Amino acid sequence: DQQVKQNSPSLSVQEGRISILNCDYTNSMFDYFLWYKKYPAEGPTFLISISSIKDKNEDGRFTVFLNKSAKHLSLHIVPSQPGDSAVYFCAASVRGYQKVTFGTGTKLQVIP
Amino acid sequence: EAQVTQNPRYLITVTGKKLTVTCSQNMNHEYMSWYRQDPGLGLRQIYYSMNVEVTDKGDVPEGYKVSRKEKRNFPLILESPSPNQTSLYFCASMFAGSDTQYFGPGTRLTVL
Fold first, then answer.
1. What pLDDT, in 10s, does the model give residues A10-58?
2. What is residue B83's DSSP assignment?
3. In this structure, which of A2, A49, A78, B94 has its CB flanked by the most CB atoms within 10 Å?
4. B88 and A41 in contact (C-beta within 8 Å)?
C-alpha cells in the first residue's frame, strides 16, 4: 500500500519557467512533509519541509504548499534552472515516530 | 566533514553468497536506517535503528539483517542474497527527534 504517491514519474520544463511537482498521501496521521532531491550517483539530500500546521513554506526559489483537506502537497521551483534537473522525492512522517515514508519520485528535467 | 559513508559502492555477487554492506556516520546521530531504491517503487525502508542495540523492521525487511553495536556503524547483512535483492541501497542517519535524514552515496548491488 503506497501511502505517499507521486503520480508523475517525469517532468520536463523550460529553463526560467515554473516547475510544479505533486505528491499525494493517504495516511491522515502524517503531520510533517519533506522534499528530497537526488542527483545520479549520489544519495538524496534534504531540500525543504513543511509542518501540517502550515500551508506554505518558502526557501529561496523553492516553495512547498500543503493542502491537508486534499492530502496533497506540491513543490514549486521558480525560476527553474538546469541544475535543478534531478529526481525529487516527497516524504511524510508522523512526528515523534521517526519513521519516514517516501514517494516513488519524479524525475525533473530543466531544458536550457 | 560531516558525512555518511557506505562500502562498497558497487558489488556484483552470486546467489547465496553472504555479504555485508557497511554504513558509518560521523555526526553522532542516534537514528540510522537502510533503504532500497527500485524503479517505480521509490525508496523503501528495510530496517532502522533508534540507538545502539535498538533495531526494528521497516517496510521490506525480508532477507536482510542488521546490527547496531556502535553508534556510528549500521551494517546491512544479506545472509543468502537472491536476484530480487538486486537494487540500489542507501544508508541514512539523523538526530533523534529530527525529521531530516542525511544519506550516504548509495551501494549498487547486483545478485546473479
1. 999 999 999 999 999 999 999 999 999 999 989 999 999 999 999 999 9
2. G
3. B94
4. no
